[in-house]
Description:
Blueprint: H1 2-13, H2 17-22, H3 27-38, E1 45-46, H4 47-62, H5 74-84, E2 87-90, E3 99-102, H6 104-115, H7 125-141, H8 146-168, H9 177-218, H10 225-231, H11 241-253, H12 256-271, H13 280-287, H14 289-316, H15 319-339, H16 394-399, H17 405-416, E4 421-423, H18 424-430, H19 437-450, E5 452-464, E6 470-481
Antiparallel strand pairs: 1-3, 2-3, 4-6, 5-6
Helix pairs in contact: 9-14, 9-15, 11-14
Amino acid sequence: MKHxxxxxxxxxxxxxxxxxxxxxxxxxxxxxxxxxxxxxxxRQLPAAVLHERLQRALDQLNGDDxxxxxxxxxxxYVAHWLAQGxxxxxxxxxxxxxxxxxxxxxLQAIRFADSMEQARVAATESRLALVIEQLSQxxxxxxxxxxxxxxxxxxxxxxxxxEIARVGAGRVAALDGKRALERARQIIGLADELTEDFRxxxxxxxxxxREFRERIIDDEGERGDVLSRLFEGVDVIGESDAxxxxxxxxxxxxxxxxxxxxxxxxxxxxTRGFARRLDRHERAFLRGFTSTMxxxxxxxxxVLQHFARSLRGFVQSRGYLEQRRLNQLLKQAQAExxxxxxxxxxxxxIGRDLQLTTSRLRSWSQWKLHDPxxxxxxxxxxxxDTASISLESVGDLVASSEIDFRTLRRDLHELLGAQPKLxxxxxxxxxxxxxxxxxxxGYLSLGTRFGTVVEGEQELAHWRGGDGQLRRARIxxxxxxxxxxxxxx
Length: 489
């Protein structure tokens, strides 16, 4: 019966890492921590950095009355997540410690959980247009009748000629802002999934590498198929289906004409009016899409080359012979144990006492050396000078921030109505800084455009942040005057 087959399949899927993560006791906390630590920022972290950041986050969560307590240490949670298949651990060449990253299964579970609160229209115009376009291309590219292909090409030519005539007459039909925004977000979603496909390709290569090594070791013949091809100098990983598919995609990605066309299209889209309605993360994703694709594709390409070289070296160094001999000895021991299973019971005395070990084998990254100096407390107190903000750093800070310039300009316009000139420190003493340091950066940015910067001089600015703490910094001295008050309106 169908329902029995489905129930059996779902019981099997329940043991997969994706389902286990979504059904974990502290799933909201675990998913939130994994997404923050290894998905939104750095995709790979050294063991020491991951432990330190995770412990800091755990301390904050355990101090929150609204959160359920997470009693384990950061090292214990990392070991548990690794055993559950939610993390992957690697030791890159030349690295002094292990690197951690999310597994492909954990990424899928996090994306599923994150998408549950995002309302999606069942049938948007952009998705329907994408389906129609792909079906039309498939029908055209699989047509073998020359007459039918010529008829389709003539129809396409007539449609293009009619469009040229309409544009030449000044009748241009452009997408409205709402439909363009919908289509842009649909493209961003597809592109985001495409960048994550590289992870699955890398996993396929790792699986393929393991399968080839197992076949070489388990092959009892003189020379197996994989072994013979390797001795003949054939790159068996590069010649596999996954290898050929990735190499074709990699050539397309590195094609100069295709890359130039993609960059030009991205630049054009970002200059359109509807692009301003995209949020900061969506705009940043589009700006860095090409570099992200090349970076992640390059990582997979390096993995592919490394696996091919290591597999060939494994065979040429005759290391597979030692592995094969060890594998044979293990199988022989298992066969002899099975033969004695009926003769010697599990509880039967054998006349010899064995001392069982109580040591636990764990990863070296979970151990910490004791440093006696860490228990010493330095009683001296050093007073640091106030931090300085330079005008050179203001541009980068403004580009990466969402600053409310409208409110800042309005405050300056009102203050200059009652005094002839005004510095940033004076403005902060009379008005709130709703964005904290962001408001100070905004004032400095406005000062470079509407104020007068006094070279070589600074002033001490005070403001109170959103957390209620009083902060201060030394900033360049900038004067706003009533002569330019109208420019701030």
